[in-house]
Amino acid sequence: MKRADLIFGLIGLALTGYVWVVTGGFPEDQVVQVGPAFFPRILAVGLGLSSLALIFRAYRHPQETPSEGTRFSIHDPGIQRAGIALAATIAYCFLLEPFGFIPISIIYLLLLMLLLQEKKYLQMIVTAVAVTGVLYLVFSLLLNITLPMGSLYGF
Amino acid sequence: MDFDLFLNGFLSIFQLKPMLMVFLGATGGIMIGSLPGLTATMGVALLVPFTFGLPIGEAMGMLLGIFSGAIYGGSISAILIRTPGTPAAAATLLDGYPMTKRGEAGRALSISVFSSFIGGLTGALIMTFLSPQISRVALEFSAAEYFALAIFGLSIIISVSGGSIIKGIMAGFFGLLISTIGFDPVSGFPRFTFGSMDLLEGPAFIPTLIGLFAFSEVFKGVETLATSKQVVSKITSLLPSWADIKATWKDILKSSVMGTFIGSIPGAGSDIAAFVGYSEAKRRSKNPEKFGKGAIEGVAAAESANNACTGGAMIPLLSLGIPGDAVTAVLLGAFIIQGLRPGPLLYRDHMDVVYSVFAAMIMANIAMFIVGLLGVRFFAKIISIRKSLLLPIIFLLSIVGSYSMRNSLFDIWVALCFGVIGYVLQRNRFPVSPILLALILGPMAEANLRRSLIINDGSIMAVISRPITATFLILGLLSLVTSVLRQNRMNQRLAELTAQADDED
Lengths: 155, 505
Hints:
The structure holds two protein chains of two kinds. Chain A is an all-alpha fold. Chain A has helices at residues 2-23, 38-60, 77-99, 101-115, 121-142. In chain A, α1 packs antiparallel against α2 (38-60) and α4 (101-115) runs antiparallel to α5. In chain A, 26% of the residues are buried. Chain B is 74% helix and 1% strand. Chain B is built from 21 helices and two strands. Classes of the chains: A mainly alpha, B mainly alpha. At the A-B interface, α1, α2, α3, α4 and α5 of A face α9, α10, α17, α18 and α19 of B.
């Protein structure tokens, strides 16, 4: 799978270019000529060189080696599951403050369990409620950290 | 070595709440370690937020309990289901699992907990006596030496990167670039913040590593629908028999000392220590042909070496501020949260803290031994917990842990973002540990290099030609070269050993 390595090499080069351009706008130190841009530019060169090496190797050794990853495909059910989990987590972040930690966490846990093809519904509900409750108690009573209670209910 | 301070350190740990934390940590650590897919790094990262409000003694007691417990815990699943719970236990399964197949699971587990205890204790004691000496030398270091030390630490990146070295270097540079986000350490100019107030101090450390080490793992688990193997063997004995101890004590002691020193070399982690200890025991054995077929010495040597490594890895962390492996890098983050920076100054200004860490490390190993002995049947059950219930809990812990540090939603976004990056990188066989080490050592390298350049009127030669600086830089280069060579050899040996084990099935 040399294509993935090529893509990552190109991403590395793009990042190198980005850092080089942005650091061009940093102020220069008048005395020792070593300002805020100095270190990031060294790093950018390092990243650029190693990205080139990766691209070069992808051309030289196009055959599969164990050091390369699994193929990415949007139609793969595994990737779709990971995507749903990501979407659920993003939704969690948006809903946490308006709806509060307790209801949102229980729903989130149940959703992920369903996604992972859990079938024992009673165990699911007991686990989700218990975990949320214990976490809430540990944070609020033991650690004095307040988790959002839900602005919609007037807290 | 100050005996009064040492005693005081013990007294500060030997109280109800710190002891409770040590035992909680050890129990949690063994659970995390025994679950394949949950590593010691992930465990410590997820639980650091819980230590935020605790006094340093309790916080360290809990975290060191997790660290020691997780390294031992990995052997439980290695022995029972032939899956190392943590990479450190990969050598343990070679003889541990054949013992289980012979119906000797209990015997293997009891020698495992015993040798882990002796190994961990040896490591902790060597750390107690050796690290103050190292810190005294390091007290003389100036900015130039610290820069070289950071570069030396960064050369670890290769040795922790597994598989592909180019990818390890790329990950390292990526992490270094991430570490430059926020205020420039010398002039205070904000860099790469995209105009965001939240990024002025860079992405917060704990959310970043929760993303890299916890979120990324659970995404992988969701993708592959990870399943758990069932434990079938019955565990009968809890304590190792006198005969077993007599047969293994020499291997245990030798592995313990070797493991500590391997651990103290930055970059050589507990997995390497376990393999070195194992091969040494095999080489010295009168009947090496028994190894791989259920030799109890194999389990003892591997387990004492990997637990001794925990104490060893603490030596450079405490005395130099350079983490010895990924877990100690997370522990460094925990120190910084407490407002303490490990390194020689910690020994000069906060000797009481240092000694309470020593005491906590020793107690953590005692707690691990007691919990491991009494709870082994319970931990054997934990292994079979369904991933469909476990993974969602880790998702939630990752979110709450990231949020709780500063009550900030932004930190959840940071964690999630690094979770996706970590997941995509790992899927393409990029190692993530170099990113973590770069985040810690990057600012240290930059600030000290620039400070010493200012002192020396911008002359780079004046900086790198200082004797200690040059030595560290050359050592860094050597460590790069040797780790490349060692990596090839390790991969070969690992392939041979697992091929052997496969033949036995």
